[in-house]
Amino acid sequence: MKLHVIGCHGPYPVAGGATSGYLLEHEGRALLMDCGAGVMGRLMRLWDPAALEGVLLSHLHFDHASDLLVMRYYLEIVGKTLPVYVPAEDESPFRALLSAPAFDVRPYPEKLSILGLQVTTLPVRHPVPCRALRLTDGEKTLVFTGDTNTCPGLAAFARDADALLSDAAFLEAEWTEQKPHLSASGAAELAREAGAKALYLTHLPVRHEPESLLREARKIFPQAQAVHPGMVIAL
């Protein structure tokens, strides 16, 4: 597996950047996890969107899904329909906007096989329905937390992940249990409890330099890294 970081900021991008979007490549095939603001144009540099085998949306907040609205035009022009997986219980107006010939919107099944990978999901704690994703080829495992604060069962879900891509939207001084995201140190605690082999901080806030988040995470999980657009994580 090879994970291309297309965008990693939230809830809005840096100048010229993008919010949540990750291209997962496996054995010459690819899927997209999240498709936030700015992702479509950057994706076009890496992969033909019409050649994707599906889109896995952690949830339907705009910074994770809005560029599907412009991807739609491209897919309709080339005559392609993509499966798009979403949390089953989300009936928001944005889900209705995805009702177009370009998209086959499906609720996550209990188990999903795509790209030769087995995908399982876990409901996590966010203001709207959201899923953490666990993807494995039987040898290597990637876990993406989606957007979440502390969540029962998340460490067990991420157990022994080769790569844990975790929400890390706050410094510890500004984080509370009522926030919609983890802090960088909370992400590190999650990685340590899960026994993850590697931690990658994402959903990075534009108001902070990544290094400040990374310093806090590395006090708990020394091998933590902060992702950046263009980064490639090989599993």
**Mean pLDDT, nearest integer?**
97
What's the number of domains? Answer: 1
> Biggest sheet: strands side by side, in what order?
6-5-4-3-2-1-14
Number of strands: 14
Describe the structure.
The chain has helices at 39-46, 62-65, 68-78, 93-97, 154-157, 184-194, 210-218, and strands spanning 2-7, 21-26, 29-35, 55-56, 82-86, 103-107, 112-114, 117-123, 131-136, 141-144, 163-167, 199-202, 225-226, 232-234. The chain is of the alpha/beta class and 235 residues long. It has a single domain, classed as Metallo-beta-lactamase, Chain A. The mean pLDDT is 97.
Sequence-ordered SSE layout with sheet pairings:
Blueprint: E1 2-7, E2 21-26, E3 29-35, H1 39-46, E4 55-56, H2 62-65, H3 68-78, E5 82-86, H4 93-97, E6 103-107, E7 112-114, E8 117-123, E9 131-136, E10 141-144, H5 154-157, E11 163-167, H6 184-194, E12 199-202, H7 210-218, E13 225-226, E14 232-234
Helix pairs in contact: 6-7
Overview in brief:
With 235 residues, this protein is an alpha/beta fold.
List keywords for this structure.
seven-stranded mixed sheet, 28% strand, Metallo-beta-lactamase, Chain A, 7 helices, globular, 235 residues, alpha/beta
